[in-house]
Amino acid sequence: MATHKLLLLPGDGIGSEVMAEVKKVIGWLDAQGLASFAIEEDLVGGAAYDSCGQPISEEAMAKAFAADAILLGAVGGPKWANVHYEARPEAGLLRLRKDLQLFANLRPAMCYPALADASSLKRDLVEGLDVLIVRELTGGVYFGEPKTITDLSDGQKRAVDTQVYESYEIERIARVAFELARTRKNRVVSTEKHNVMKTGVLWKQVVSEVHGSDYNDVTLEHQLADSCGMQLVRAPKQFDVIVTDNLFGDILSDVAAMLTGSLGMLPSASLGAVEEISGKRRALYEPVHGAAPDIAGKGVANPIAMIGSLAMALRYSFGLIEAADRVEAAIAGVLADGYRTGDIWSEGMTRVGTAGMGDAVIAELAKAA
Ligand SMILES: NC(=O)C1=CN([C@@H]2O[C@H](COP(=O)(O)OP(=O)(O)OC[C@H]3O[C@@H](n4cnc5c(N)ncnc54)[C@H](O)[C@@H]3O)[C@@H](O)[C@H]2O)C=CC1
Ligand SMILES: CC(C)CC(=O)C(=O)O
Ligand SMILES: [Mg+2]
């Protein structure tokens, strides 16, 4: 069996807590002979800043380039609120995304049957929900220049962020969305704000052209991003694949998370292009949530988003479909058995902490083995 080079970057806050549970799952898969990993680990975010004054070191970046896939916990927290902007924890994650050219961020939001009552929406609105948000991840306003705060002569300040998209960036993310839609319900909603933004005008035009030339078999609808947010909480099951830019994708995926019960449920995959010679693609897998400073250190964080991110790595980077299916089935199994961390707990359910949920997943995997 091939050995896969996996880099673990736990990061800050609950990042290291949820990563500890993924390590148990990795160990179990290895012990069962279902997968073979060569593991490296390094610092990112505030943890890296504390160690070397940068949110990611050059050594860690070299490991990231050498890895077959990266698993990242989360970065950030109030401890680093006064660190200068370029060295803030989030800059480490943004550098990984940009330098590795991980332009396609897949954020699936599925409502497990056992959790339909944990959603902030009524059961019938979310039961069976299966939406895939395809977020552009290396362009847009998170990276556009200029990005400045300047002092004005009258004592005021002016802040500028710049939203930039070139047509090739829109075309390649649109292709990812259409290809994935073909493996699902064959429907894509493209969302932007062409009514107020030039990038929205170009986005809509390029997505329409890609659709017209190569994906006429896929149903395409355009929605303005504000309206799309409204539709996500009005009737979320109308969606199959949503393709959108970096900022709107960030916001809409947090909204979608709550439809499933908790931000602690949503995994994600950030993928680069398939390289022509090797056939490989760079990839980083991380939960959609952040470092959650309000619960960090308490052992209560939900590790399912992180464990689900490992399942995505098994599927998309290593082609270990059976192992991925088993991990996803184990997640569904523990939820069906009533195990709940605090964020998804309700009366009558078995309340567990982060480690308890990780142990329950291992027990479920072992039961099915
Ligand atoms: N990918 C990343 O590393 C991300 C980092 N961040 C950073 O994280 C820090 C905190 O940001 P917030 O706005 O508070 O967002 P957050 O996602 O960390 O937390 C939002 C809320 O969701 C809860 N939550 C999140 N994950 C959970 C889990 N696994 N189990 C149970 N509850 C969970 C938190 O307790 C909190 O109440 C900031 O520094 C932010 O920049 C935010 C989002 C993504
Ligand atoms: C750089 C991250 C903190 C942005 C974010 O919230 C996300 O990617 O979900
Ligand atoms: Mg976010």
Automatic annotation (TrEMBL):
Transmembrane segments: none annotated. GO terms for biological process: L-leucine biosynthetic process. The record marks Y142, K193 as: Important for catalysis. The keyword Magnesium applies. It is an enzyme of class 1 (oxidoreductase). It comes from the Bacteria. NAD(+) binds at G77, P78, K79, W80, A81, N82, V83, H84, Y85, E86, A87, R88, P89, E90. Keywords: Amino-acid biosynthesis, Branched-chain amino acid biosynthesis, Cytoplasm, Leucine biosynthesis, Magnesium, Manganese, Metal-binding, NAD, Oxidoreductase. Its cofactor is Mn(2+); Mg(2+). Its main location: cytoplasm. It is found in: Cytoplasm. Binds 1 Mg(2+) or Mn(2+) ion per subunit. SMART domains: Iso_dh. Residues 5-361 form the Isopropylmalate dehydrogenase-like domain. GO terms for cellular component: cytosol. Substrate binds at R97, R107, R135, D226. It catalyses: (2R,3S)-3-isopropylmalate + NAD(+) = 4-methyl-2-oxopentanoate + CO2 + NADH. Its EC number is 1.1.1.85. InterPro entries: IsoCit/isopropylmalate_DH_CS (IPR019818), IsoPropMal-DH-like_dom (IPR024084), Isopropylmalate_DH (IPR004429). Mg(2+) binds at D226, D250, D254. GO terms for molecular function: 3-isopropylmalate dehydrogenase activity; magnesium ion binding; NAD binding. Belongs to the isocitrate and isopropylmalate dehydrogenases family. LeuB type 1 subfamily. Homodimer. Catalyzes the oxidation of 3-carboxy-2-hydroxy-4-methylpentanoate (3-isopropylmalate) to 3-carboxy-4-methyl-2-oxopentanoate. The product decarboxylates to 4-methyl-2 oxopentanoate. This is 3-isopropylmalate dehydrogenase. It comes from Ancylobacter tetraedralis.
